[in-house]
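This week, work through this protein record:
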Amino acid sequence: MDHYKPNQLGPLSQPFQPSQLSPLSQPSQPGPGKPYQCPPTDPIMTSPERIVRDFYHPQKVQVIHPIQIVNRHHCVPVYEHVYTCEETDEYCGTHPHPHQGMLRD
Protein backbone atom coordinates (compact mmCIF):
# COMPACT_ATOMS: atom_id res chain seq x y z
CA MET A 1 0.00 0.00 0.00
CA ASP A 2 1.42 3.37 -1.00
CA HIS A 3 1.62 6.03 1.66
CA TYR A 4 0.96 9.65 0.89
CA LYS A 5 3.99 11.90 1.06
CA PRO A 6 3.39 15.66 1.28
CA ASN A 7 5.90 16.48 -1.45
CA GLN A 8 4.18 14.21 -4.02
CA LEU A 9 1.71 15.87 -6.39
CA GLY A 10 -1.38 13.89 -7.27
CA PRO A 11 -3.54 14.30 -10.38
CA LEU A 12 -5.96 16.60 -8.54
CA SER A 13 -3.25 18.84 -7.18
CA GLN A 14 -2.86 20.59 -10.55
CA PRO A 15 -5.11 23.65 -11.16
CA PHE A 16 -8.34 22.77 -12.94
CA GLN A 17 -8.88 24.19 -16.41
CA PRO A 18 -12.42 24.54 -17.82
CA SER A 19 -11.15 23.35 -21.18
CA GLN A 20 -10.61 19.91 -19.63
CA LEU A 21 -14.39 19.35 -19.62
CA SER A 22 -16.46 18.64 -22.63
CA PRO A 23 -20.19 17.97 -23.05
CA LEU A 24 -21.07 14.29 -23.29
CA SER A 25 -23.37 14.90 -26.23
CA GLN A 26 -20.53 15.82 -28.55
CA PRO A 27 -18.62 13.09 -30.37
CA SER A 28 -15.33 12.16 -28.76
CA GLN A 29 -13.16 12.73 -31.82
CA PRO A 30 -10.08 14.85 -31.48
CA GLY A 31 -9.49 17.38 -34.19
CA PRO A 32 -7.32 20.36 -34.88
CA GLY A 33 -7.86 22.99 -32.17
CA LYS A 34 -10.25 20.74 -30.23
CA PRO A 35 -9.34 19.19 -26.91
CA TYR A 36 -9.70 15.47 -26.51
CA GLN A 37 -13.14 14.40 -25.29
CA CYS A 38 -13.47 11.33 -23.13
CA PRO A 39 -16.13 8.78 -24.02
CA PRO A 40 -19.27 8.66 -21.82
CA THR A 41 -19.06 6.37 -18.82
CA ASP A 42 -21.56 4.21 -17.06
CA PRO A 43 -23.39 6.01 -14.25
CA ILE A 44 -22.30 5.31 -10.71
CA MET A 45 -25.06 4.34 -8.33
CA THR A 46 -24.52 5.56 -4.78
CA SER A 47 -26.19 4.28 -1.66
CA PRO A 48 -29.61 5.86 -1.24
CA GLU A 49 -29.79 8.91 0.93
CA ARG A 50 -32.45 8.53 3.56
CA ILE A 51 -34.82 11.44 3.98
CA VAL A 52 -37.30 11.13 6.82
CA ARG A 53 -40.53 13.09 6.64
CA ASP A 54 -42.57 13.00 9.82
CA PHE A 55 -46.35 13.27 9.59
CA TYR A 56 -48.45 13.73 12.72
CA HIS A 57 -52.04 12.60 12.91
CA PRO A 58 -54.46 13.12 15.81
CA GLN A 59 -55.18 10.00 17.80
CA LYS A 60 -57.93 10.07 20.42
CA VAL A 61 -56.90 8.87 23.84
CA GLN A 62 -59.48 8.85 26.61
CA VAL A 63 -58.26 10.39 29.83
CA ILE A 64 -60.63 9.48 32.64
CA HIS A 65 -60.89 11.89 35.57
CA PRO A 66 -62.89 10.24 38.35
CA ILE A 67 -64.89 12.65 40.50
CA GLN A 68 -66.20 11.64 43.92
CA ILE A 69 -68.93 13.83 45.40
CA VAL A 70 -69.27 13.75 49.20
CA ASN A 71 -72.40 15.30 50.71
CA ARG A 72 -71.64 16.40 54.26
CA HIS A 73 -74.48 17.52 56.54
CA HIS A 74 -73.80 19.87 59.45
CA CYS A 75 -76.12 21.14 62.17
CA VAL A 76 -75.84 24.89 62.47
CA PRO A 77 -77.65 26.74 65.29
CA VAL A 78 -80.13 29.28 63.95
CA TYR A 79 -81.79 31.32 66.68
CA GLU A 80 -85.55 31.56 66.54
CA HIS A 81 -86.70 34.20 69.01
CA VAL A 82 -90.06 33.34 70.61
CA TYR A 83 -91.75 35.90 72.81
CA THR A 84 -94.40 35.10 75.40
CA CYS A 85 -96.80 37.76 76.53
CA GLU A 86 -98.48 38.09 79.88
CA GLU A 87 -100.82 40.91 80.65
CA THR A 88 -101.67 42.17 84.14
CA ASP A 89 -103.42 45.24 85.45
CA GLU A 90 -101.94 47.24 88.26
CA TYR A 91 -102.95 50.51 89.71
CA CYS A 92 -100.43 53.02 90.92
CA GLY A 93 -100.54 56.32 92.67
CA THR A 94 -103.01 57.99 95.04
CA HIS A 95 -106.10 57.29 93.17
CA PRO A 96 -108.36 54.83 94.83
CA HIS A 97 -109.62 51.85 93.07
CA PRO A 98 -112.11 52.99 90.50
CA HIS A 99 -114.96 51.13 92.17
CA GLN A 100 -113.95 51.94 95.70
CA GLY A 101 -115.96 54.59 97.46
CA MET A 102 -118.95 54.29 95.23
CA LEU A 103 -121.92 52.66 96.51
CA ARG A 104 -124.32 50.87 94.45
CA ASP A 105 -127.90 50.43 95.17
User: Anything to note?
Assistant: DSSP finds no helices and no strands in the chain. The radius of gyration is 62 Å.
